[in-house]
Amino acid sequence: MKLIYNFILISVLMLCPASLRADTSSTAMDTAQSHGPETSMATQILSDANSDTNEVAQKQLEFTPPDEKTIIVLPQRNEAEAKEAQEAAPAENETVTEAEEEGPRIHDPLAPVNKVMYHFNDRLYFWVLKPVTQVYSHIIPEDFRIIFGNVYDNLWAPSRMLNNLLQLRFKAAGNELIRFLFNSVAGIAGTADVARDALGIKKQEADFGQTLGHYGIGHCFYLVLPVFGPSSLRDGIGLAGDGLMYPLTYVSSSDLTFGESTGIYAHEKVNDTSFKIGDYESFKESAIDPYVSMRDAFVQHRKKEVEESKQ
Length: 311
Prior knowledge:
By secondary structure, the protein is an all-alpha fold. The protein is 75% helix and 3% strand.
């Protein structure tokens, strides 16, 4: 009986797998070495699987999803940036508004009437003045038109001289007196500007509207005068003042009829326009609103002339 029991025990030990005997061994490596290549390969696969599992677990530990604080911070930052942009926008608008307010302005309470006068002058230019001037330029050579221009310019010298004197610009007034006398004599009634060519004395622009502005009198309000174009209450009074300083005003009252004096003025206007054909057309094409652009250009131009009178 004992022999049978021993035989069964030996058979069980021989047929028992390596995994059962591993419990009784001291190390897993000894067990793998004692059971051939298949057992070693299985152990290697398990080892590789365990290492892969460890790597996956390690990666899972390394990746930490953003917590609630991180998710909340980003919107808060965006809200802060948007708030700063909103605060900066009014400041930029204020800067633009201040820059606009710095520009020259003029009251235009008679805008409806002024616009009618503007369109009247516009039609007068395109329908009458421009065609007449083009025919005149074609008939009269440029040299003769320059001579006519010098004569009219010389006739306005007394007005420029007196206005420079009223503005306390004594040197400019003296230069205008010299120009008038020299051009009237040496230039043969002003047909040539010999004072500019021989003496180097240039024309000193000045008018009565500029003189009023020199002493701080403002435009009051904007006016568009028929034929004369853009003006203001101040400069309209200035035109009347300049007329009183124009020599032909007194000649026409005694020796010339109204038609003759009007013809002289019309010739002066046509002759002057003959050197400027195309300027008004270019200005009108480049302007979004020609009426507003002309008004602003007039104010800026007159402001510059008043500032020059104070230098």
